[in-house]
Amino acid sequence: MSQRSVFLFQTTWARWALPRGISGAAIAAAPRGRPGGGMASQPHSLSYVGCNFLRQRLVLSTLSGRPVKIRKIRAKEENPGLRDFEASFIRLIDKVTNGSRIEINQTGTTLYYQPGLLYGGVLEHDCSPHRSIGYYLESLLCLAPFMKHPLRIVLRGVTNDQVDPSVDVLKATALPLLKKFGIDGEGFELKITRRGMPPKGGGEVIFACPVRKVLRPIQSTDPGKIKRIRGTAYSVRVSPQIANRIVDSARSILNKFIPDIYIYTDHMKGTSSGKSPGFGLSLVAETTNGTFLGAELASNPQGQGTAVLPEELGLNCAKLLLEEIYRGGCVDSTNQSLVLLLMTLGQQDVSKVLLGPLSPYTIEFLRHLRSFFQIMFKIETKPSHEELQGGEKVLMTCVGIGFANLSKTIK
Question: Transmembrane region positions (predicted)?
Answer without folding.
Answer: none
